[in-house]
Amino acid sequence: MRRFDLAPLYRASVGFDQMADMLDRVMSEPGGGQTYPPYNIAKTGDDAYAIEIAVAGFTPEELSVEQRENALIVTARKSEDETADRTFLHRGIATRAFERRFHLAAHVRVEAARHENGMLVIELVREVPEALKPRRIAIAGTTADTKAVEHQAA
């Protein structure tokens, strides 16, 4: 597999180490990445997203959605008791167990998860704390301007 040296990115940027780490993690994934089950990621609003995972053949009880720090982990385990009394002539619907991980950006949390029409839909919301939102800083000029700014702040 092709490897990229990200050292120049570390030297030439400040505060982008997380992005470089993420690129490095994606490039070094074994097996070229996981393809099962298929999924979509959709932007549903300014700060709202949805992950849609095709989970045909699984019931809500066989699925698990868990958020740990900045990771979203979706797992599925099929009980073998259902298929013990049947012999398949053709089995085209994959119901094998899986674990799918998604790396979430800072301040993104899972709001809800629902199972409908063979799809698991996980709704995500990005909530930036007030302390991290941009704010306008007044620029003081003359002494009279400085007193006016201090008076407005009090």
TrEMBL record:
Instruction: Kindly give the Pfam families that the UniProt entry links to this protein.
Output: HSP20
The yes or no answer to whether the keyword Zinc is present is: no
Aminoacyl-tRNA synthetase as UniProt keyword: no
Looking up PROSITE patterns in the UniProt record yields:
SHSP
InterPro entries for this protein: A-crystallin/Hsp20_dom, ACD_IbpA/B, HSP20-like_chaperone
Indicate the segments forming the SHSP domain, all copies. 30-142
- Give the matching SUPFAM superfamilies: HSP20-like chaperones
Keywords associated with the record: Stress response
Q: Which family does it belong to?
A: Belongs to the small heat shock protein (HSP20) family.
PANTHER family in UniProt: PTHR47062, SMALL HEAT SHOCK PROTEIN IBPA
The protein here is known as Hsp20 family protein
